């Protein structure tokens, strides 16, 4: 129940989330999916969260690990971090703090990016979940927001439809769906003129240079 609640809340923050319920599945999923952040309950069945953490750290997986546990004293935090976790959050916790920690770890998982993304008059603030173009506030759906964030993070580079499916949706999405094309069409309409999202035939999408 906690895993599903966390996943639903993170999706409401425009994050793509996969969920597993035991350590075996966690290790299996992380072996073929590339994640920015793993929110890891320490008390997992089949394979304990400590072992999952140790294994992921040993693989030098790119994901940052946020460990959750019912134990909150200093010794437990030190033990969790010594296993390779990047951050530690005792239960119960305030959901807003978990979101803030996930976002902070996500920024550390790749190349440094500014806290506010700007290009072609578009200003996107992931923390405050606000986006504007030329000072005009835009109301985007979670998926539109996530797609635009990926395009801005690419800094003019081409982002494939497959990459957008991976980053803005989850593994349950049909890879042959036209959802990216449909989302791109509504996003272009909301951004208005002049058009800034270019379709690169056979490759993907990019934000045109200033």
From TrEMBL:
Keywords: DNA-binding, Phosphoprotein
Cellular-component GO terms for this entry: cytosol; protein-DNA complex
Pfam families: Response_reg, Trans_reg_C
Gene3D superfamilies: 3.40.50.2300, 6.10.250.690, Winged helix-like DNA-binding domain superfamily/Winged helix DNA-binding domain
Domain OmpR/PhoB-type: 114-209
Example GO biological process: regulation of DNA-templated transcription
Domain called Response regulatory: residue spans: 1-106
Annotated coiled-coil segments of the chain: none
DNA-binding residues (ranges): 114-209
GO molecular function: phosphorelay response regulator activity; transcription cis-regulatory region binding
Keyword field contains Nuclease: no
Residues recorded with modification 4-aspartylphosphate: 41
Protein name: Two-component response regulator CutR
